[in-house]
UniProtKB/TrEMBL annotation:
This is Mitogen-activated protein kinase. The lineage of its organism: Eukaryota, Metazoa, Echinodermata, Eleutherozoa, Echinozoa. One of its GO terms (molecular function) is protein serine kinase activity. It is found in: Cytoplasm; Nucleus. It comes from the Eukaryota.
Length: 433
């Protein structure tokens, strides 16, 4: 979805009446206005909110340069503390680094004001109509083909992230955006980080929505890997099949109990990453046998192949859990791959002699994501300066920069919308302490 590719005419921006006064976005150079926009604007859609994540508010808006609908995300309270500031900088760096059809990427970012007035950041991304959570809870029927093509795209996007060295750490249905053509994109990188190769370094356990949280995090492991995302994918695969959350518990301890009800009591080897409190909790309970055959009861789509793949993802020990690349090699995904590359992808093309398939169905990255830019950022002001420079430099290209239209009525409610910053999020104490 190009935001700046259309021909630009010299029509005075302010001379065009109508929707412009209502649009949140405007072009920063008033004499530039796309000639094609007037026609597109006949079926003008008002700007409206579409989602509220933990770290931002998202609106569906029109790009004034080409009349296309895009998503505008406001990142508020960026400079409250060093943690939130660095997290936003990391998310933006990632959004501009991504280049994959199953991962949401940034299309543009609004010009920042002078650094003394720099408080909020507005980023433009592709607009998607729905997400997997809304689809799962809707009455819309989900065929076996739907499940396969969704799961294929989740794994295809996640393989790209893991090859880039990025752990998403909040894979859940609400963070998997879907458009009307069933194209799926992984979004929300507010909790993402690069892998930690040093296993002696502690990583935060305040990650991943509880229902999708891997057992190693529930048992208090101080270090974890990309396998945490694969656990979440297993939970989502089961949810797509059964149309209900697989492990839906009230607390982290009962979450762990539900998992061991299905997988059985883990062996001592499988508990090697657990803290002592979690180990004694598990060993105090009566021994549970595994009952993976219950997965056949999820739905009529739970075939042998589906249950085989699912049971390789839902493995207690992260070292024995299937990786993304291995999952993509499973025969269950062959049909999803074929469907995706026959009529949904952008990597294969139709030619007079038939469909020309790509040589690499699940591409990796050319270069891993490098978080070395964070070195030397030790204060909020240093982070603010670095962010300001990063955004300003993105505007040194040839496209017409975007800015907020302060005349827009919708902007007033957008500007006043805000969400809890991290410092206000409820703490998630370790139950084993
Ligand atoms: Zn393709």
């Amino acid at each position: 979805m190009a935001v700046c590719g259309s021909r630009i005419s010299q029509m005075a921006f302010h001379a065009t009446p109508g929707p412009h006064e209502r649009s949140i976005l405007s072009a920063a150079q008033p004499f530039y206005h796309s000639s094609s926009t007037a026609a597109v604007r006949r079926d003008f859609e008002p700007d409206r909110p579409i989602g509220y994540g933990a770290f931002g508010v998202v609106w569906s808006v029109t790009d004034p340069r080409d009349g296309k609908r895009v998503a505008l995300k406001k990142m508020p309270n960026v400079f409250q503390n060093l943690i939130s500031c660095k997290r936003v900088y990391r998310e933006l760096k990632m959004l501009f680094y991504f280049n994959h059809d199953n991962v949401l990427k940034a299309l543009d970012i609004l010009q920042p004001p002078h650094i003394d007035f720099f408080e909020e950041i507005y980023v433009v991304t592709q607009l998607m109509q729905s997400d997997l959570h809304k689809i799962i809870v809707s009455p819309q029927p989900l065929s076996s083909d739907h499940v396969k093509v969704f799961l294929y795209q989740i794994l295809r996007g996640l393989k790209y992230l893991h090859m880039a060295g990025i752990l998403h750490r909040d894979i859940k249905p609400g963070n998997l955006l879907v458009n009307s053509n069933c194209i799926l994109k992984i979004c929300d990188f507010g909790l993402a980080r690069v892998e930690e190769p040093d296993t002696t370094k502690d990583m935060t356990q305040e990650v991943i929505t509880q229902y999708y949280r891997a057992p190693e995090i529930l048992v208090g492991s101080k270090h974890y890997t990309s396998a945490v995302d694969m656990w979440s994918v297993g939970c989502i695969f089961a949810e797509l099949l059964g149309r209900r959350i697989l492990f839906q518990a009230q607390s982290p301890v009962s979450q762990l109990n539900l998992i061991t009800d299905l997988l059985g009591t883990p062996s001592s080897e499988d508990l090697k990453y657990a803290c002592n409190g979690a180990k004694s909790h598990i060993l105090r309970m009566p021994h549970k046998p595994p009952c993976l055959s219950a997965l056949y009861n999820l739905s009529s789509h739970a075939t042998h192949e589906a249950v085989h793949l699912l049971s390789r993802m839902l493995v207690f020990n992260p070292d024995k859990r299937m990786s993304c690349t291995d999952a993509l090699a499973h025969p269950y995904l062959d049909e999803g791959r074929l469907r995706y590359h026959t009529c949904m992808c952008s990597c294969c093309v139709n030619t007079p002699s038939g469909r020309q398939y790509t040589s690499n169905f699940e591409p990796s990255v050319e270069e891993r994501f490098d978080d070395g830019y964070e070195d030397g950022i030790n204060t909020v002001y240093q982070c603010k300066e670095a962010l300001h420079k990063f955004i300003t430099e993105r505007h040194q290209g040839s496209s017409v920069p975007l800015c907020i239209n302060p005349q827009s009525a919708a902007f007033k409610s957008f500007a006043s919308s805000s969400v809890a910053s991290t410092s206000e999020l409820p703490p998630s104490p370790q139950p084993w302490d």
